[in-house]
Structures are given as C-alpha cells and as structure tokens.
Design goal:
Length: 707
C-alpha cells in the first residue's frame, strides 16, 4: 500500500485516496476479486490503474465504447503511463504496433471492447504474455435491466475462462439493486469482495422550480456559468432544436445533440464540447454515454425526465471532479401530460411499469423534504443527514408560511364553475379575467369567479396551483384537467385552513463564486490550458483539470517544487508543462505582488516531497546518470541537482561517485586548496577569491566531490 500511495502522488499528483479507493486497491493487491459499485466521479479508474502500475504484467481493461477507451488512454499517457487500446477502428499498422508493444511487455494497461477480446487472434496474443489483472469497466452493460445492455458483455465469462487465475475487478456506477445482482450472478467473479459506496453525490446542488417561462428561466440559470461547461436536457428533438436556436440567437455558446442529427454532426458537436470549443450542449437523452468530461458545472432539465433513474444518471454527468456543481429541473404538470401521452402507444404492462416510475419521479419533484431522501431511497439507500445544505428544500427550511385558504377557495370554486373540465391554464385565465377567445367562446366571462383573482399574477397562480396539487386539495385528471376531491370541499366549506407561500418561487441556490481563488489568474490559466490542448489535440481537462487550475490560482506556486504540491500535477506533467506554467505564474505574481503560498498547502507534505525528490535524484546519480542528464530529466538547473546531492550526503547517506568537472587537474587542485583554506561551507569567498572566473555550478560540484 505504501507503493500505491506513492504512485497516487508521484504519478497522478493526488494527496489522498478518495472513498473506497484504498480498500479496493488493497484487495486487488492481495489478489482478491472485486465488484465495486460506486457513483460517477468517485474515482473508479484509479482502483485498477494503480494496481496495474504495481503488478509486473499486463492489466486488461474491458470498456464498451471506443470514446471511453481513447479518453482513458490519453489521460494515462499524459501522466506518463504506458497504455494503449485495441479496436477494429485502428489502422492495421497501428493495430500491429500495439500488438508488438504488448508482446514486448511495453504496455501496462490495455483497453479493449469485449468483442475484440473474444477474437481468437487477441486471445492468442494475450496468452503469450503475463496478465495480472482484468478490469471490467461499466459492468452494468452485462445486465438486461440496465440502461445500456451489451450482449457481448455476457460473453466475457468465456474470455475469463482463458485466464482463470487472473484477478478480476468489475466496476459500475449503476445503483439499481437488480443490476447489481445481475453483475454478481452473470459475471461469475468467484469469491469477489463487494464494495458499495453511497450514491449520494454530495457536490451536486439539487433544485426544482415550477416551469412558467422556460426560456427566461433557462437564461437566468445559465447566466451564472460564464465560460463553464453545462448540459441542458429536453424531452424531444424538436425542443432541442428550438431551444438551442433561441439560445444561440441570444449569444450563448451552444450546440444541439439528438439522434436526428447525422453521425458526423453528433461527433462534431460532442467533440466541440469536450474540447471546450462550445460551452453548452442542448440534448435529448441520446447525449451522455461515453462522455468523461469531469468539469461539467451544471445540468438543467428543461423538461421532466421520465423516471428517477434517467434523472440521476443525467445530473450525474455534472461535477465528476468533485467541485460543486448545479442541477436544476423545471417542473410542469404539462410535461407529465406529455409523457403520459406517449405511454399510450405502449402495452398495458409496460404502461403500468412506466407510470409507476413516472409517479416516483413526480413524488421526488413534489417532496417538501430533503431531495436526497427520495432520490437515494429509490436506490435502496437511506439518507440520514438532517439538512444536506445543497438542495432547495433544505436551503429553504424555516421559511415562513402564510394562510392561503382564500386563494385556494377562489381557485377551487373556479374549477367547480368551469365544470371540472379544464386544465390549470384555463382556470387561471378565468380567475384573472382574461379576454382570451377560449374564455369568451365559452361564455366564462359570465361566471361569478371571472376576474376574482386579478390581485395576483399569472405566475403566482400557477405557483399556487402547484402547491394545491402537492397538498392534495385537488387532483390532476386525464389530459391535465383539474378535478375536485373530498379535501377540496373541506376547504370550500371553510372547514380547513391551508398554509403555503404566495411569493413566486425563485431559485434559492446562489452559485457561490468562490472568492477564495484568484479568478483573474484562473482565467489566464484556463486560456493557456486551451492553447496547449489545441496544439496537442487533447481535451483541455486532460492537460490540467479545473482542480489543478484552482490550486494554482490559490497557492501561486512559483517554483518547480511548489508545483509538485498542486492537485493533479506530478512528474510527467511538470516535465511537459512546468516551465510554461512557471513563466505565466511568476510573471503574474510579480506584477500583482503575490507570494508563493504553497507552503500552506501542507507543510509536512512539502518536506516529504522534498526528501522524496532528494532520494530519487541520489538513486539516479548512483546508477551513473550524469548531472547534465538529471537536469534534463527534472528540468532544473545543475545548481539544484548538485545541491540535492550535497544535502543527501549531509544527511549522512553514502553516495559514491564524483561529478565530472571539465577543468584541468591543476585548476581543480587550486580550487580545492582554496576551499581548505577558506572553509567548505560557503561558496562566495571562493568565488571572489578567483575573481568570478569559476561559476557557482563548478564550485558547488567541486564542493560535492570533496565531501
Ligand atoms: P468514475 O470513473 O468513478 O466516474 P473517475 O475515475 O473518472 O471517476 O474519476 C473522477 C475524477 O476524479 C477524475 O478527474 C480523477 O482524476 C479524479 N480523482 C480520482 N481519484 C482521485 C483522488 N484520490 N484524489 C483526487 N482526485 C481524484
Ligand atoms: Zn437536502
């Protein structure tokens, strides 16, 4: 485990394990089979990637989609890990190249789809090398009950027959118990240890608002997320097209995505999103699978999802990086009617099943308790916190309610007078005294309730209507018609008092613009990240995550050592981008008088990191690597390396080997004499003694050789 922790920091640049990562890795290292069920963003990939780096042989990762494989492979490569994928889409020469790398043991992780793995030629090749671990990602694909069943996943057992002794880990983010059981039954991973973590995504803010003016509500919501990525889900393709056109006309950076677009368009739009060329995707449920983008900051449901599972899955695409992210749903009874309408085409049993799921979704929308309670209950989990502080209901606790009996009486008698034959829109029009032709044609201007609700706005009435339905003082019939029930009469007769709110529901969730980090610097770094990413044809999040940029804009690191303390920065990335980062950071900090605060991150860690570096440099020097080479390797000046070596010796370690010095023997002798005369502690007297003819680097090297 020590090694695992070291890899976590040195290779991935993370300080701590998250959730169950540590125990899962420990089990795998003990060669135990594992089934891991953890929500999106909990860091499942590291659970097999770290063991893969510790094991001698190959780790095979089964993945259903080429886009997922590619994404993982480039992320690993960016961290300096040897990984590759096998797929029929590869050009033959590249395919062969990957095969050769496998045979030469030059790859630690191999990604492939089940159908590729089941090919005889693949099995032949893999049998020639040492396979230490099989990781089955997106393991829910094995279940017909899941949302993306893939028959080939069922055949993985056949593949595993060829590698019966190899440790296997199956991973999924699917929370439904039936799918979990299916994974355990069908994957025949014998004696596996089961790890299930809570499905609460505690960095997601959840909010539900009545939908009354969807376009302005959408605009109001997305306005909070300048330059950030987000998704808007709509019910139909038509809705996607019109909303994305509207938003584009208003100047937002959006693209549509649905099954009606050509393959090319879909691919192009998805890529634009992943590369931060476009901020927002307006989509049907067709969008999402295969998107690994960790920095999606918001998900807006413009329309009601059909069930909790799709809702959870879609909001789950926000905030995979663990940073606070925002989910809003615009709820309208009209949407329920729409969904029900489409159910009419289904068989009776299907209809019943889907209605039940829809009702659970509606209950979730209507609940006045913490949203996390029904959400997690749906997945069989009990949420025990008193207040989650991240849902509208919890944030709204303690808000004053007022007597709304009169309003209810007005509304209900209007429902009665219009014959319990109309939806809320019509009832409200009559209440407000509208001259709409639908009102006049029916002579509803002559009703005693016509115009008695003028004192409130249309929005207020629809908000009230929502409360009335939720409180059960009236009901929704077919086609969205409002019907009275026994409770209605209690209210109408004045036997019961009703409490609620008259004030329009407005979003209560403020996007907390973190004042903690330097937003200007963040912006500069974000632009720089985009430039680097475009040049390398990578998604920006692969170059640096948002977390890395936030760390940089908080701690103002200005040396290589400080960079090592930042989240997500390790050896490979610092080697590749360190100089560029430091150029930007030092210039910004000089202009704005910012000092390097990275020591605050964790004083202890800094020491560890420094001494770790010391050991590493010394080890390499012992192996005969020259100072010049070490400078190249760590991208530092000779002075730093030699100082490291000197410190190492001064710490009492033995370090044989001398630094080669390009001077004549006589000259070296004279300098050594001077050291003996003037002392070996300080360099300046020696430097002055020779009138600056010998550089500090040379003097330091000689000093080292004399120790
Ligand atoms: P999942 O597959 O469970 O959705 P990922 O493996 O994609 O999650 O990880 C989500 C994000 O969290 C990634 O950006 C990953 O690099 C990051 N991450 C994973 N483990 C850690 C950790 N221990 N500390 C910090 N960040 C982590
Ligand atoms: Zn809550």
């Amino acid at each position: 485990m020590k090694k695992a922790k070291k890899i976590l920091k040195d290779v991935f640049g993370y300080d701590e394990f998250r959730f169950k990562q540590e125990s899962i890795i420990e089990s795998i290292l003990n060669r135990k089979n594992v089934v891991a069920i953890m929500p999106t963003g909990s860091g499942k990939s590291l659970c097999y990637q770290i063991p893969a780096l510790i094991f001698e042989g190959l780790t095979i990762v089964v993945s259903p989609l080429i886009s997922l494989m590619k994404d993982q492979v480039i992320q690993l490569q960016e961290n300096g890990i040897k990984a590759a994928y096998l797929n029929s889409s590869l050009p033959p020469s590249e395919y062969q190249n990957h095969i050769n790398l496998i045979l030469e043991n030059k790859i630690k992780l191999l990604y492939a789809a089940p159908e590729t793995l089941l090919l005889e030629k693949t099995i032949n090749i893999l049998q020639q090398v040492q396979v230490d671990l099989i990781a089955i990602d997106e393991a829910h694909c094995i279940s017909e009950w899941g949302h993306d069943f893939r028959p080939e996943y069922r055949k993985l057992n056949h593949f595993r027959d060829y590698f019966p002794e190899v440790t296997t880990i199956a991973l999924t983010a699917t929370a439904t118990p039936i799918v979990q059981q299916d994974i355990q039954h069908n994957l025949s991973v014998p004696d596996s240890e089961l790890f299930i973590s809570s499905f609460d995504r505690n960095n997601l803010f959840l909010e539900i608002l009545p939908k009354n003016d969807p376009l302005s509500q959408t605009v109001e919501f997305i306005e909070r997320f300048k330059n950030q990525s987000g998704l808007i889900y709509c019910f139909s393709r038509k809705q996607v097209d019109s909303l994305s056109a509207d938003l584009r006309d208003l100047g937002y950076s959006v693209l549509p995505y649905h099954a009606g677009l050509s393959d090319y368009e879909r691919k192009f739009h998805q890529e634009a999103f992943v590369k931060d060329d476009v901020n927002i995707i307006v989509a049907t449920i067709a969008f999402g699978m295969g998107i690994n983008k960790p920095d999606v900051r918001f998900v807006l449901h413009h329309d009601l999802p059909k069930n909790i599972e799709s809702y959870y899955q879609q909001i789950g695409r926000a905030g995979r990086d663990g940073i606070d992210s925002y989910c809003q749903l615009l709820f309208s009874y009209g949407d329920i009617v729409k969904i029900k309408y489409f159910l009419k085409e289904k068989t009776e049993t299907e209809k019943m099943k889907e209605l039940k799921l829809l009702n659970a979704m509606i209950d979730f929308c209507e609940t006045e308790e913490c949203r996390r309670i029904p959400l997690l209950k749906y997945f069989g989990e009990e949420y025990l916190e008193q207040n989650c502080h991240k849902c509208d209901n919890c944030l709204n606790q303690g808000k004053k309610k007022q007597d709304i009996t009169i309003e209810a009486q007005k509304f209900l008698s209007c429902v009665k007078r219009t014959g319990e034959m109309f939806g809320s829109n019509h009832v409200i029009k009559v209440l407000m005294g509208s001259k709409d032709k639908n009102v006049l044609n029916r002579n509803h201007q002559n009703l005693s309730t016509y115009g008695i609700g003028k004192d409130l706005s249309r929005k207020q009435w629809s908000f009230l209507n929502r409360q009335f339905l939720r409180k059960g003082i009236c009901e929704l019939g077919d086609y969205g018609v409002i019907k009275l029930n026994a409770k209605s009469w209690e209210i109408l007769k004045g036997k019961e008092t009703l409490f609620g709110t008259l004030i329009e529901e407005k979003s209560k969730i403020e996007v907390i613009e973190s004042k903690e980090y330097d937003l200007d610097l963040f912006e500069i770094l974000r632009k720089m990240r985009k430039e680097i990413a475009d040049k390398a044809n990578l998604p920006p999040y692969v170059v640096f995550t948002d977390r890395t940029l936030i760390d940089l804009s908080f701690y103002y690191p200005q040396t290589k050592d400080s960079l090592f303390l930042m989240n997500g920065l390790a050896e490979q990335k610092i080697k590749k981008y360190g100089t560029q980062l430091l150029d930007v950071l030092t210039e910004y900090c000089r202009k704005n008088h910012k000092e390097d605060l990275s020591y605050k991150k964790n004083v202890r860690k800094k020491r560890v990191s420094k001494s770790k570096r010391l050991m590493e440099v010394a080890e390499k020097f012992k192996q005969g690597i020259s100072v010049e080479k070490l400078c190249e390797l760590y991208q530092v000046k000779p002075n730093t390396i030699i100082q490291h070596l000197i410190n190492y010796k001064k710490n009492g370690n033995s370090l044989k080997g001398k630094i080669t010095i390009n001077l004549s023997k006589q000259e070296v002798q004279r300098i050594e004499d001077s050291f003996l005369q003037l002392g070996t502690e300080r360099l300046k007297p020696i430097f002055d003694n020779f009138d600056g003819n010998y550089s500090y680097d040379i003097l330091r090297a000689i000093q080292f050789n004399m120790l």
